[in-house]
Structure formats: C-alpha cells, structure tokens
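The freezer alarm interrupted the setup, so I double-checked each line after restarting. Inputs confirmed:
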Amino acid sequence: MSHSALNRIGEPVQPNALPPPGHVRRGPRAWLQRNLFSNWVDTLVTLLLAALVARLLYRWVVWLFVSGTWHPADIRTCIDGGGACWAFLQDKWRLILFGTFPYEQQWRAGLALVLFLAAVVLSAVPATWSTGERRRWLMVGWLVVLGAIGVLLAGGFGLPRVEARFWSGLPLTVMLAFVGMIAAFGLALLLALGRRSTMPVIRWISIGYIELVRGVPLISLLFMANIMLPIVLPRDLVIPNLMRAQLAFVLFFAAYMAEIIRGGLQAIPLGQYAAAKALGLTYWQQMRVIILPQALRVVIPSLVNIFIAGFKDTSLVVYVGMSDLLGTAQAAKADPKWYGLFMEAYVFIAAIYLIVCATMSWYSRYLERRLANPERGS
Amino acid sequence: MTSSPDVTSPMSVRVADVGSRAPWRRPWVRAVAFQTLALLAVLAVSAFFVSNVREYLPRAGLALGWDFLGYPARFEIDDNIIGATARDPVWKAFLAGTVNTILVSVTAIVLCTILAFVVALCRMSSNWLLSHVALVWIETVRNIPLLLQLLFWYGLSTLFPLPREAWQPAIGVFVTNRGIFYPTLQITAAHQTAFVVLLALIALLVATFVHGRRVRERTGQPSRLPWVALLLVIAAPVSVLWLGGAGWVFDAPTLRGFNFVGGSTVSPEFTAVAVGLAVYQSGFTAETIRSGILGVRLGQIEAARSLGLKPLHVLWLVTVPQALRIVIPPMTSQYLSLTKSSSLGVVVGYPELMRVTTAVISETGRAIECIGIIMGIYLSLSLLTSVTMGWYARHTAYVDR
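Predicted 3D structure, all chains:
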C-alpha cells in the first residue's frame, strides 16, 4: 500500500488510479482492480458490502415475488403470507391512482395524466425551445394541452361533469404541484425584483413577506389557509378546499423561489445593468430583455430543485383533509377488508414519487452541464 | 418605476433631474407615487381583513385576548417531559409542545449529522460499490416525501412485538409496539449536587481549552491545564456521589398486565418522527458535507501529508476543520428546515407544537391567537438561528495570510 498521495477524505490514492500518460490500462479486469480490489481494505469492504447488498436484494425479491401472493384463496392468507400481497394492489391500484374520481370516468383522469406527461417530456427536450418561433409553438401547444386536460377533468363537450372535490390521487398531486409552481413563479419574480428595488417601501414589503413565510413551516400555512381564510374573508365568499390549499402552496413556494431568483439577479455583472440603462430602456424593458433572461438561465437548476421539493410537499395536503396520492394510499390501507397492510400501498406510491423526483433531478443536472457549456446550448 | 437597482451613477441622476421632462416623468416623482400606492394597497388589504374579523368575532361568540392561556387545557399530552396535564393551564400545554418540538428536532439533528457524515465519506470513497450504495441511499431518501417516510416508520413501529413478547436488546431495555422502555436512575439529592458540580466543571473545562489555545497560539507550547481540568471533571462529581452516599437504585420497567410500568418510555411516535426526519435530511446533508470536503484544496491535504500526518489525522485535523467553514451555513439552514418539518409529527400523532395548537384551537376556538403564537415561536426559532449563523460566519471568515 503506497502512501504517496491521499484524496480529500484521507484515502490513499492508488498509483494506478492516476496512470501516467501512455500507460492507461483498459478492460474490465483493470477496472475491477482499480475500483473494487485496489488493496486489502478495499477488497474486504467490497466483499462485505457485496454480501450485504446481495442479502437485501434477495430479501426484497423473496418478499416481492417468491412469497408474494397474486391470487389468494382468501384474503387472510394473502395478508399473513409473509410476502407482498399483490392482490391488494390489484384491488386498489385504481383507488390509489385516481381516488374518488367516478369509477367509469377514470379513463379521463388517466388520459389527462398521459397528455400532461407527453407535454412535459416534449418541453424537456432543448430542441423544442431553441428558437423564438419554436417557443411560440410550444406555448400554443401547452395552452391546447391544458385546455384538453381541463375538459377531461371537469367535463363538458359531451363528457359528464365531475366536480373539483372528486379530483384526487395522482392527478391532484400533479395539479397542485404544477399550478402551484407556475403561479408561485410569477409572484416570486415580483418579490425578487422588489427585494432588489431602490424604493425602500417596496423593498421592505418584499423582505417582510419573504422572511415571514420562510420562517414558518408549510403545514402551518396550509392550516392557516384552512381556518383563517374563512375568518378574514367576507361571510358569503366561500373558497373551496382545493383553492385554499393551492393558495397556501403558491404563497409558500413563492418566497423560496424569490430567494433563488434573487441569487440569479445578484450573479449578473453590474455592467449589464448599466449597459441596459444606457440604451435608454425603461425599468421593465431592462428587466425583460436584458437582466431576467440571463438571471433565470443561471438559476434553472435550483428552480428545478424547488419543483422537486414542491412535488414532494404536495403530500402535506393530507393534513387538511384532501386526498392526493398519499391520501388515497392511506384510504386504500384503511379498508377493513385489508386490515394490517401498509407496506404495499406505501411502496407503490413511494416508487411513483421516487421515479418522478429522480427523473427531475437527473434533468436538472443535465441542464446544469448543458448551461455550463454555452457553445453547445442555444 | 425608477432606475434599476445598484446602478445609480451620479451622471444618470443628474441628467434625469435636470432634463426638461414633465413632472410625472421624473424618476423621484414616480418613485414616491409608486411606493405610496403600494403602501396604500397593503393597508387596504389589511383593513379589509380586520373589518371581516370584526364582523366574524361576535357572530362566533368570541373576543380577542390572551385570557384563554390561563384556562385549564382539558386535553392530555401523552408524551411530555415537563409533566403537563389536562388540568394545567393552556400556556403550559404550549410549553410542552415547544419542548417536544425542540426535543425531537435535536435528537433528529444529532442522528442526521452522524448518518450524513458516514454517508458522505462512503459517497467519496474510491471503492465503486461503496460510493454507489451511498448514492442509492441519498437518491432514495431525498426523493420520497418526508410525510410518507414518517408514516412508513410509524407503520414499522406497529410491527414491533407486543409487550408480552418484548424484544430485549440489553438488560432492562424492552422494545415493543407500545414504545421502547428503559430503566431510570432514582434521583437523590447527591445526584443533583453531582450534576450541578459537573455542569460547573464542564464550563471550567471549556474555559481552560480556550485559554490553552491562546497560550498555544502565543507561545507554541501546549498548555497542560485542560488535562488537569479534565481530571477534575471526572474526579469531583464522582467524589460528590461517593461522599453524598448516592445509591444506585434503578426504576426498571416491568410487565404488568398488557403493558410495562416503571422506568421511562420512548414513544413509537417520537421514534418515528426522529428517525424519519434524520433519514430524510441525511440525504441532503450528506451532499452538503461532500461539497464542503470537495471545497478543501488538495494542496492542503498534500501539505498535511508531507508533514507526516496519518490518513485519519489528515481527515480530522486538516480536511474537516476547513470543510466545516464551508458547510456550516448551508447545514444550519437545513437543520432549521428540519426543525420546521418536525411539525409533520402532527400527522403521526406526536404531540409537538403543531398538534398542541390544533388541540387548543378545537378546545377554545381561539384560532387567531393560537396561529399568532405558533407563527411567533417558529419565527423566533428561525431568527435566533440566522443571527447565530451570521455571528458564526463572521467569526470563521477566512483570513488570507
């Protein structure tokens, strides 16, 4: 074991980890030796860990497939069988995904989800927003898709009406997150500009709002929206549950987004502000044409991270009595017929959250790399 | 709508003011008008809210005031160390909730720090398997909603054995689905005195460390004073215990009927919240720690190495102290967000601040005051943290020599 060099956490850097030019060893054997068996400690760690991982994977596979029950003779053997009770998911998957949406109409909620997913995937490809004309088409496409989703969920054009209080499950989660983030972004732009304003009243209002909201937990805002709004608004103005929760989300995430956008604004060199001003542009022109396009580009990865946080935090609406994806999973496991099961429902929705969030965070890293090499970007 | 921020060069101001513009085009006129409008808008919205509240209160048979804090709470808090009961006043219930919030947060922070440090080191290992196991851990725990994780841990705790078949990891400690039971020492006056002596001596020890460091910085010689103090810290309380004739009588949990009595309990709710918070946050904190360690320049490590320090010493004496300076500010805000997230304990039934507040509101109907109280408590926790963080950042700012 050589002691010539160490990495930052004090592990010796193997001489073969940094081979001299011209002596690069290739092939799977060299890779294995370099990354898994470089010395005896390394080998020991690898072997122990491999045994542990294999054991865990084995247990999971056994739980899921070997002792998992697909077609139970009766429900108790499925629940007490010691493995995953797939019959439970077979019975409940539509309840978990679509909740209280009318059963015969659930294809509509499903189609709305698919449409939304397609639109998101399409807009995630940089080629779709590389030129001004394409961006305009993208906007038009989004308006069409959102209109279609609205019709699918609410009804009209020959489809029976479904009231908003029946929207639940995954569509509700996606809607709370998406609408919440878009609206919060608008508010956040104003707050961020306000916080950097030279006008003291505007600045203090923005600072006060941002710090106040960031100082309290989201659940207390949801709670407040639920019981305070009816008190501070006139008696005859009744805001539905869904709107109140949505409002709390917007108000909460706007404060966090504003701080991120402010970071972007601060990263713009002062010369850009001066140059924009020297061109004789008004304040809003300076912001729209010169400052914000640059500032927002810097903070796109952080904004995606806030998106992820928002998507996860929609689960808090369970507390104010709404059934998003987590709420419907709770409802599914509360069925006395399946009493005692919780792992199946939780693992199912955890997988959904995990896939969505991991994809977003992968995309954020991809954008970050892309933005770091501007010559390859648009 | 005036000039853009940060670039009010004297030149532009003079041009703008002297020019033969109409008054409403002058920047300062616009600024005053715009700000007056904004202020009026905020005031108008507030007045609207207040007038609606004025109308609401008599309708609901309520009045604003803090008198309800003195009324009996009329609900039990199952899990509190200050011993608040249903007959105690409401303010004591709030105090119990705050203590619980702090207790569960501190426990989670300690667990999270240990976990995150280990995960970060694993993530940076040159062993491919180890670093990828750490990666899977990080990606999994931070991409699943915290609330789902709390419910998961809470669900797991119901799978623990019944009290009759309790699992006994150590003598006198019982793990059951009703919580973890462990024995406690019966406290006597001698124990209390020893504890006070111990606290005083620890303060002394810290003082000698500070003094020792000054001496070392001035003379280059290590001070021997801390070792003397350390000896005192161990010896003095022990002799107080011995001379005071303190007994070693333990109150051990025993199975009576369907549950354990005696000793102390860690409730399943507390365990679920503390473990859930720590696991969830460990994914974020591990990445912060990793970026802090990566921020230490390799030259520092090479220099330490060439001084002949051993690998563990390099990590502990060179890498960690420098990484800490980078890591502490983001980590503080992560811990603050953990503390705020402990309010999710309300969903699994842990009696922290949020749950106590909902209970008080359903007992008294005083929604406005109660929301004011929790907002105030969370805000002051945040403010305290950011003030401390600012002080720390100034204290440890890098001095280029």
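Quick read of the result. The radius of gyration of chain B is 29 Å.
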